[in-house]
Recover the amino acids of this structure.
């Protein structure tokens, strides 16, 4: 662990590499504690006179070093665990052979070569390759790799690396064997991967659009093969979709996915050899929920799509991370929209964006989509880079239109294939195909913070015009006190009293509004539409065309009209959310000041209409029924947050809805029950989503009949979605049925780690005083372990991120517990520890008592020694004034 003060890296300090590495040959002899790596690197100078050669390392032990075949004398180089320097290298191409010894079993950070259970695997993004060998470990060094792996046959019968298999066999006279893999596509070191272990697998085949046959493999723990089929199907659909939607074909003879049980993140797009957290691969009806299936499909697609957006074209430096991540998230979102319901996908993505990115953007960890400085790159795999990064790509598409967008993507692939590039290179492609100037748009990449847009609508009967006066403001964020106005594409509609869209024609010149999108560029501007008899109801930011907050002078009646009739499904949902949020926010205030809470017949009526409308897509109806979460309400309130008051207001409203909508909820529940076998497709999932949303609301005021219904559904369920939904509903009520079901669940699934994660997670989110003590007990449960990131995230992560009232306990004990767990974890896995600590990022928005407790815990963690760079960076930025 490095405990010295971490240095900052700045975008403005970028310098092209002084040396290139053209080919890399790795010879890896796998051993549990002494793996030997022989790297043969072909260097070419990029500058004259030749610069000193400074290679990155991290916890490395050098065993030997040769230059052009001769052992390098000790005075010619200097090697430490984290650096290898040759001050005076030959001013010409030369070959270095570097031998290092590494201990994969001691690698608890899960970066570099490590062991997940008994399997050897690697994780090199962002800076893990330097934990395998000394290297120019930066993404603009692209080389052709050949990897030879050898291992005990009994220990690792399967040996995999990037590219195509070229050779393999037994090593005569020994119990060892080897495999040689060659990847013809130049790639950065962060995309290197190898795997060795006893693995089962399933195999398939894919014929590309141009007729090439590709072998597909999904490797899993032996015995888990039957759980890999859904992932394989999702892979094939992803491959076909990328051909159809983006003209992108796969390029190697084989594509492999390996599922491992210990992984810091979701999955990794290593060229030809994607490595996955097994929770994003393994699924059958009885172990995975519909949401799990949907996430697996999305993550499989995401990693596959990286083959072109990330691997073939990569990032020049880590500041450009959104170049591959934002774009690839956009691509996987589009894939899911085409596979499932587009409006529902948009709603769920915006929910995530607001819950994660808007929160990040409004607190001390706010940063631009393309940051300009970092101390630890691992801390920048954030909602801002990923989710807001995807929104920026979506806005580019909205601005240039679908045809120029596709042409711009084609140009990007043609122009930059095989290169490590920047955001400017990417955006320039759309400037050219769209004929637009993106100078001002680039501010989106540089300015942090969520823009606020206020809209005032006025109607003038005399001139039959409707004007929208629009102003945008950019909030201050850390290091960015003042900002410039942004280019904001707002998709809009004006609805007449029957809820129909009026034609939009500019009053001054009679021009129709193109594609229904107005484009803001100034701090304040007014758009006037003509030929409008009566005051219309504006539908603003349709489809969430821009990632902004909107405030408009809409009445409750306007919102009800939008909720019932808006042709834009996203805004129908948004209107219900806005109604509910206004009511909840008002009632939080009432509860805190001891005033009687309000009711809103309009909201009840809107939801009644939803339940009565049998033509509505069930999945969409389920979204309409979901009230803003406690975290959503906290975000809307924004300051002086009291999670207990929020919980009380929300519980009250849910109870009211249960009573008022009881009959309709029961009818819809019954209507959504299907007999016939479970299938994870979108249609079946949508019906279950609506059914389970009804169940949860029905039980909201704890009536015995509804609790009994949940208990029955738990027992009779033939799939994990229904079983888990019933259990989640029971979890909210202190009834005997809850404990009985939890005990039953553990007995049923104790041999199934991914399902037991659900059991831990659910108990950590119970909104009751006793929860913390129970979580403490669970952290001593035989099935709990700090060594598995999924388990840690399930118990500690869920408590810190998904239990608003208990993490934010008034006495500070929730904060103390999480801080202690993070400190424990930091010694073993800094990346996961740092991420867990971001649960404190909204501490300044809390009411004073809780704020003080949270700050004290942040300071306590900050003062602890030793502390990883990762955790120190998060804590110091969280506390910065
Ligand atoms: N590039 C991965 C993705 O698809 C993210 C990732 C996986 C990652 N493992 C990591 C990032 C470890 C940092 C560290 O999004
Ligand atoms: Zn990614």
């Amino acid at each position: 662990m490095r405990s010295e003060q971490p240095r900052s890296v700045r975008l403005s300090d970028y310098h092209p590499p002084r040396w290139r590495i053209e080919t890399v040959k790795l010879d890896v002899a796998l051993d549990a504690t002494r793996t030997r790596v022989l790297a043969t690197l072909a260097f070419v100078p990029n500058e004259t006179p030749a610069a000193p050669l400074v290679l990155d390392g991290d916890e490395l032990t050098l065993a030997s070093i040769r230059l052009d075949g001769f052992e390098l004398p000790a005075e010619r180089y200097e090697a430490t665990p984290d650096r290898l320097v040759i001050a005076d290298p030959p001013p010409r191409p030369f070959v270095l052979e570097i031998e290092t010894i590494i201990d994969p079993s001691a690698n608890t950070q899960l970066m570099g070569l490590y062991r997940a259970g008994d399997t050897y695997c690697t994780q090199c993004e962002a800076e893990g390759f330097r934990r395998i060998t000394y290297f120019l470990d930066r993404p603009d060094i692209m080389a052709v790799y050949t990897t030879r792996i050898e291992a005990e046959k009994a220990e690792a019968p399967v040996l995999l690396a990037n590219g195509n298999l070229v050779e393999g066999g037994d090593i005569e006279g020994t119990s060892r064997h080897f495999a040689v893999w060659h990847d013809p596509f130049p790639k950065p070191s962060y995309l290197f991967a190898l795997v060795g272990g006893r693995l089962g697998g399933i195999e398939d085949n894919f014929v590309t659009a141009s007729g090439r046959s590709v072998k597909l493999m999904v490797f899993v723990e032996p015995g888990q093969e039957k759980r890999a089929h859904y992932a394989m199907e999702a892979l094939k659909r992803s491959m076909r979709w990328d051909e159809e939607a983006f003209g992108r074909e796969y390029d190697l003879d084989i594509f492999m996915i390996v599922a491992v049980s210990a992984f810091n993140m979701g999955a990794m797009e290593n060229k030809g050899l994607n490595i996955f957290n097994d929770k994003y691969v393994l699924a059958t009806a009885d172990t995975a929920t519909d949401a799990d299936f949907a996430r697996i499909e999305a993550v499989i697609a995401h990693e596959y799509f990286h083959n072109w957006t990330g691997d073939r074209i990569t990032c020049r430096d880590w500041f450009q991370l959104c170049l591959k991540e934002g774009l690839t998230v956009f691509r996987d979102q589009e894939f899911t929209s085409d596979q499932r319901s587009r409006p529902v996908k948009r709603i769920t993505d915006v929910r995530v964006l607001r819950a994660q990115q808007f929160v990040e953007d409004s607190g001390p960890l706010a940063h631009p989509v393309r940051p300009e400085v970092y101390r630890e790159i691992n801390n920048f795999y954030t909602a801002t880079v990923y989710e807001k990064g995807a929104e920026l790509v979506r806005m580019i598409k909205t601005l240039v239109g679908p045809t120029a967008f596709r042409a711009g993507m084609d140009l990007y692939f043609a122009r930059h294939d095989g290169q490590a590039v920047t955001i400017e290179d990417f955006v320039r492609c759309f400037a050219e195909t769209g004929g637009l100037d993106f100078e001002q748009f680039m501010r989106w990449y540089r300015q942090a913070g969520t823009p606020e847009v206020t809209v005032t609508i006025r109607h003038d009967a005399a001139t039959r015009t409707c004007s929208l006066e629009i102003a945008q403001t950019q909030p201050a964020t850390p290091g960015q006190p003042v900002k410039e106005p942004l280019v904001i594409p707002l998709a809009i509609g004006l609805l007449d009293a029957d809820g129909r869209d009026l034609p939009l024609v500019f009053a001054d010149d009679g021009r129709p509004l193109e594609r229904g999108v107005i484009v803001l560029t100034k701090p304040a501007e007014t758009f006037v539409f003509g030929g409008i008899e009566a005051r219309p109801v504006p539908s603003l930011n349709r489809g969430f065309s821009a990632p902004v907050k909107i405030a408009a002078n809409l009445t409750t009646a306007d919102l009800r009209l939008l909720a019932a009739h808006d042709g834009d499904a996203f805004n129908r949902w948004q209107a219900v959310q806005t109604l509910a949020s206004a009511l909840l926010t008002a009632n939080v205030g009432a509860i805190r000041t001891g005033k009687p809470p309000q009711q809103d017949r309009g909201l009840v009526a809107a939801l009644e209409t939803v339940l009565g409308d049998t033509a509505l897509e069930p999945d969409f109806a389920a979204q309409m029924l979901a009230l803003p979460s406690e975290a959503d309400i906290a975000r809307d309130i924004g300051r002086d947050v009291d999670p207990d008051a929020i919980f009380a207001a929300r519980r009250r409203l849910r109870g009211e809805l249960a009573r008022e909508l009881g009959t309709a909820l029961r009818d819809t529940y019954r209507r959504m029950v299907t007999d016939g076998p479970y299938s994870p497709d979108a249609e079946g999932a949508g019906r279950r989503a609506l059914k389970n949303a009804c169940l949860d609301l029905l039980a909201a005021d704890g009536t015995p009949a509804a609790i009994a219904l949940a208990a029955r559904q738990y027992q009779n369920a033939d799939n994990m979605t229904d079983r888990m939904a019933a259990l989640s509903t029971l979890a909210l009520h202190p009834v005997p049925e809850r404990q009985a079901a939890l005990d039953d669940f553990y007995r049923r699934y104790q041999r199934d780690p991914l399902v037991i994660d659900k059991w831990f997670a659910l108990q950590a989110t119970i909104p009751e005083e006793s929860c913390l003590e129970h979580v403490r007990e669970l952290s001593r449960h035989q099935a709990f372990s700090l060594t598995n990131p999924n388990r840690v995230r399930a118990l500690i992560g869920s408590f810190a991120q998904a239990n608003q009232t208990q993490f934010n306990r008034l006495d500070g004990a929730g904060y103390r517990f999480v801080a202690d767990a993070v400190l424990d974890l930091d010694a073993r896995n800094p990346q996961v520890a740092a991420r867990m600590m971001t649960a404190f990022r909204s501490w300044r928005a809390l009411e004073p008592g809780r704020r003080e407790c949270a700050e004290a815990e942040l300071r306590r963690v900050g003062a602890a020694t030793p502390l990883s760079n990762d955790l120190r960076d998060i804590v110091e930025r969280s506390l910065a004034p």
About this structure: The domain at 452-546 is CATH 2.60.40.1840 (Immunoglobulin-like). The radius of gyration is 28 Å.
